[in-house]
Amino acid sequence: MQSEKKLTLWALAWPIFIEMFLQFLLGTADTLMVSHISDDAVAVVGISNQLFQAATILFMTVAAGAGVLIAQNLGAGKREEARIAAIIAVKVSLYISAGLSVLLFVFAEFVAKLLQIPDPLLPLAQSYISIVGGGTIFTAAMAALGSVIRNTGNTRGPMFIAIGMNVVHVLLGYVFIYGAFGFPQLGLTGAAVSTLVSRLAASIVLLRLFLYAFERKVEWRDFQLFDRSLFKDILRLGWPMGVNSASWFVTQLVIFSFVAMLGAKELAARTYMNTMESFCFLLGYSVAMAAQIQIAYLFGAGDNKEAYRSAFRALGLGLLIVIPGTLLLYAAGGNVLHLFTADAEIVALGVSLLAVNIILQPGKMLNMAINGALTAVGDTRFIMINGLLSMWLIATGLSYLFGIRLEWGLIGIYIGMIIDEYTRGVIVLIRWIKRAQLTRRKRVASESSDMSASQ
């Protein structure tokens, strides 16, 4: 772990921001290239990526739990426990993702139909899902290794690797999509191949960085290590995080299916919107992620007062960034959308969503900051229960009611999501203000001290 002096919110956040910002720019360039194939191709990529993100949750359950435990143990000076937790997380994540890779490769057509992708788009979807889904093991490696490395306090390493990966991805995308430099013109298949190759390269470099992430180098034989007690702690923290994140992504898939029911234009508009709205919260997300690492470290070190304050600093800074970002995006949105598509109807739909986005994004920032703080102190079960109830009853239920039943379309679906974000956000904010987990930690520590004294 980097020295405590370097564990400031800014020192942790700026590499995460640069990584996310460049990923956004390069991801936008990738979407732009795919949009030149067709709006149908964009729709396939959008809904398929929702599937891949949902699948990622299965192996990120372990990595996320381990990340919190690593930062807490390093804060408490338990460096070997942190190292073993990291090894376990990477190993288990790779096992799970290997099975998922096989399933997505073999059953790509079945999965495409399950997502209710319109029949004309099925051939494109089957090809894209089989190639990118078959490389899920590389996505898992990137996610697990990156999470572990960041939680040691090293946010710069994953930043540089992500930059390199995305540059390679865009360059290969240009070559394979358009058939540049004598290569065959593969269209959407070329986009999938470039994704697969760039993730493989990034996984190899991240693995090299991981081997030297701790004071004692991780040897290949160390992957045989397995501490059952430590693994139980990882799962105790991780499984509620996994359930909550999986629930969010699954509800997004369900909501995407509602959008698909509205038509191909609405699906394309929503996909473009997903790319554009990333600009609104990427800075805030970087701050929230950095705060989670910092709070977990402070909590492990027993500095509960500073841990409590860090959450509000992150929230305040995030809102100061997100709100102007949404306004800027709305002002420039129409011109930006014309870069992606010439369809006037899709552009009009996108602009209307950008207006609603001004209300949506501050609610997302509230959830990111306070959920991250509660996660850092181990209060993951509360987050899970709050998320399950709100995301299914409010986000999904109201999106269907407003968007489909009442025929309000995309705007109705967004209204359902807005109500969900603010409901969850207010509940977790009240939980953090009450300091339930921090108070419990003090009480447990006091009881332990009394027992030691009596012995």
TrEMBL record:
Subcellular location: Cell membrane
Bilayer topology annotation: Multi-pass membrane protein
Primary location: membrane
Transmembrane segments: 7-26, 51-72, 84-108, 128-148, 160-181, 193-214, 234-262, 282-300, 312-333, 339-360, 381-402, 408-433
InterPro entries, A to Z: MATE_fam, MdtK-like, YsiQ
Keyword entries, A-Z: Cell membrane, Membrane, Transmembrane, Transmembrane helix, Transport
Coiled coil: none
Alphabetical list of PANTHER family matching this protein: MULTIDRUG AND TOXIN EFFLUX PROTEIN MATE FAMILY (PTHR42925), NA+ DRIVEN MULTIDRUG EFFLUX PUMP (PTHR42925:SF2)
The protein's name in its UniProt record: FMN/FAD exporter YeeO
Organism: Paenibacillus allorhizosphaerae
GN (gene name): yeeO_3
